[in-house]
Amino acid sequence: MVTVKTMKRWFTSITAVAFILAVIFNWSLLVSSKKPSDVERAFVSDKAQHLADTGDEKLQATTKHAEEKNSVVGVTNLHEALEKIQELEKRLRDIEYRIPKKYPEVEFLTFKDRKRILVTGGAGFVGSHLVDRLMMEGHEMIVVDNFFTGRRRNVEHWVGHENFELIHHDIVNPLYIEVDQIYHLASPASPPHYMYNPVKTIKTNTVGTINVLGLAKRVGARVLIASTSEVYGDPEVHPQTESYWGHVNPIGPRACYDESKRISETLAYSYGKQENVQVRVARIFNTYGPRMHINDGRVVSNFILQALTGQDITIYGSGKQTRSFQYVSDLVDGLIKLQNSNYSQPVNLGNPDEHTIEEFASIIHEMVGGKSMIINKDAIEDDPQRRKPDITRATNILGWQPLVPLQKGIKKTVTFFRRELMRSRHSERNLHNPVDSRNANSIHNAEDYNDL
């Protein structure tokens, strides 16, 4: 006997089958309706043949019409074309921004040889060149800078690299990281910069140095203190050896820098004796090269800037006072050799090739050219009269000596300054190739110095 429940089940099954058949039938009609008929095929074929026969004639007519139109509104179209070009340039810049960044090829070091190295003031003039060299050698770099005189663009070519880290930090505040070596370069170094805030300069070279030495003590790192030839003051001994104690005015306008650097050395050796911290001290003499602040007020930058802009080259005093200038790659070479040596006493790093300020002004004037005159103004208070390093200790113990001749180094620096003055927007980069910082020998031996 057929029950109501069975009949409902049969009805549901029949309904489902009918629905499926209806869907299949409608789909077949839809597909068949989209197939072109013979008439449609013939029309398309005739139209294609007609376009092929008349295409050239229409193209010529269209071109002629466009030329006539352009002759009438040529100025407007030129303006539109320039706008299009600018738009395309912007799109290209956007595309370049999205393209994965390419970095200079660095050496590969195994975990046994690779070090984690901290450079305080690593975005500054000397610090950025030191970072370039150590990055190229394959080490992991941590750069700490408060960007008072340092600039991000000095190290921007490394940002994003797996071996590089940039930290915005003022070293007068404690820093807690793990490192193997420390180069303590953080401090304003030119008179206008360190005189701008004398108390902060003193704090950087005292409290900042204490923080660096405390970090070195905690992690067992070796630390190199970047001292200065200013610890000799206005010297009564010439040339200056590391054993000379100096002749410094403790309350003069330069005292905030001179005396705080002397305290920095004292702190270093106190930590060495009391806490067994491995310390190295480099007394750095006048240094120049690419990435110098264009308005830092030092002799090299002042003279080059004045010559390039057609201003009179200003000498403060008689011009008979002497200086010794070393190229930045020579200094970097010396810093690395000192850090990796077993020598813990202070070492002079400078170029003993001595020139009067007057001679130096003439060298730059001849190289740059122009109508600038060399003029003299009143001397600056506490300006050292003679400055020349005795590098016997560096030569005998480190095997170091400067290699870059003054003419070649100045030529490279003038080129950098000239490009800097030509910049009119941020997209026009004036970058110094990190490969140039690999070693001083590459610069000294280069046949074409401009190609570096």
UniProtKB/TrEMBL annotation:
Q: Which PANTHER family did the record assign? A: UDP-GLUCURONIC ACID DECARBOXYLASE 1 (PTHR43078:SF6), UDP-GLUCURONIC ACID DECARBOXYLASE-RELATED (PTHR43078)
User: What catalytic activity is recorded?
Assistant: UDP-alpha-D-glucuronate + H(+) = UDP-alpha-D-xylose + CO2
What is the recorded membrane topology of this protein?
Single-pass type II membrane protein
User: Family, per the entry?
Assistant: Belongs to the NAD(P)-dependent epimerase/dehydratase family. UDP-glucuronic acid decarboxylase subfamily.
This protein's GO CC annotations: Golgi cisterna membrane
Residue ranges of every copy of the NAD(P)-binding domain listed in the record = 118-413
Q: Where is this region: Disordered?
A: 428-452
Predominant localisation class: Golgi
Q: In which pathway does it act?
A: Nucleotide-sugar biosynthesis; UDP-alpha-D-xylose biosynthesis; UDP-alpha-D-xylose from UDP-alpha-D-glucuronate: step 1/1
Q: Which GO terms describe its biological process?
A: D-xylose metabolic process
Q: Where in the cell is it found?
A: Golgi apparatus, Golgi stack membrane
Q: What is the lineage of its organism?
A: Eukaryota, Metazoa, Ecdysozoa, Arthropoda, Crustacea
Keyword list (alphabetical) reads: Decarboxylase, Glycoprotein, Golgi apparatus, Lyase, Membrane, NAD, Signal-anchor, Transmembrane, Transmembrane helix
What name is this protein filed under? Answer: UDP-glucuronic acid decarboxylase 1
